Amino acid sequence: xxxxxxxxxLFQTLRKRMWLIVLITTVAATISAVVSxxxxxxxxxxxxxxxxxxxxxEQQFYNSAEVQTNxxxxxxxxVIIKSPAILEKVEExxxxxxxxxxxxxxITVGSATNSQVVExxxxxxxxxxxxxxxxxxxxxxxxxxxxxxxxxxxxxxSKAEVGVDPSPVKPQPLLxxxxxxxxxxxxxxxxxxxxxxxxxxxxxxxxxxxxxELPVMGVISVINEESIKEAQSHSFGSQSVKKGETYxx
Length: 249
Known about the structure:
4-stranded antiparallel beta sheet, 11% strand, single chain, alpha+beta
């Protein structure tokens, strides 16, 4: 026996379980808001930029070969910046009480495609500490790269600064709440259809016709207390009328 589900039945299922969908969505959004505002630690971000360029010479014209060489060196520089040789000196200067691995996890190094600019990004719960790590890392790398590779082609393009009212980059409460609402809706709708699928009780004559494939000959209406009292009142009224008619006769 094949079963087909119409679009109308789907909407009826959603309408019947709307309270469940709204409840789950509200709970998910509330939990996300509480966690985002009161549980998660705000993380601030600071950036500094390094320019990789050949040492100035008497030649003032543009040399594309030198630019390509600098771009190829950037991949090597990205690794050196996060190496223990640099981060150990950063820790010695700042005295943060953190290991090299911890600093490594806070620092992200990247550069745009075919760009000679290296961007050092640092995330930390304290915006001032984040800026200090970024600037110190850039300064230490600029000094140490001369000893490591015997090349003096790195200059600091911009330093990390802390604004008057810095804003954390994460968590993002509004984004988290929006994601929680979407997830809550998905869970609520899925649970509504699951409950409807598991519910095999017969609630109407249409359900009887679909399951038994037999026509419905009659329907017994639901009798509640109000219907009984109303029927009794009508019955007593008719009896009194008949008695009156008898006495009159």
